[in-house]
Amino acid sequence: MATEDMVRAGTRTGTDAPAGGDTPQGTGTRTRDLRQLITYALVGGSGVLLDLGAFLLLYNVAGLHEQVANVLSTSLGITNNFVLNALFTFGKRDRLLRRYLRFYAVGLTGIALTFVLLAVFSRGLGIDPNLVKAGSLPLVLVFQFALNRKWSFA
Questions:
Q1: Which of 16, 151, 33, 153 has its CA nearest to residue 87?
Q2: What is the pLDDT of residues 93-128, one digit of tens each?
Q3: pTM (whole model) above 0.90
Q4: 149: Cβ–Cβ under 8 A, 6 or more apart, which residues?
Q5: Of the four, 3, 10, 42, 144, which is 20 to 30 A from 112 by CA?
Q6: How far apart (Å, rounded) are the C-alpha atoms in residues 106 and 140?
Q7: How many whole angstroms separate alpha carbon 51 and alpha carbon 44?
Q8: CA-wise closest residue to 116 among 132, 104, 131
């Protein structure tokens, strides 16, 4: 377990150090950052699919108002992403309530941003709310990754 914690923290053990010396400075950190980004994107993808699927069902099938459907579907996606990111992306299992509240606060910024986009493009310009919701997801995802990495899982 100590070796696993050392590797996760970025420290090298004697058994995995290269024969000619240590790795170039920053290589391990860049590799870890890239893995986190890829994992975050995969988790985010699952959250996007869940969010969009739930929105489509809540809005189109259940007949909920677009803003209510957005809050519910986004909340479902946020919770899904928190659990998966805590387990797989950032490996953080401590202070879960605090981390979840921060993660959800970041998620609320996504709800607010999508709320504004729906109001402007759907209500104001008459664009189908399904298209507006789908188009907002990549923008919200990138914004939230930066905030979650620096604040929720720091």
A1: 153
A2: 899 999 999 999 998 888 898 899 999 999 999 999
A3: no
A4: 36, 40, 90
A5: 42
A6: 10
A7: 10
A8: 132
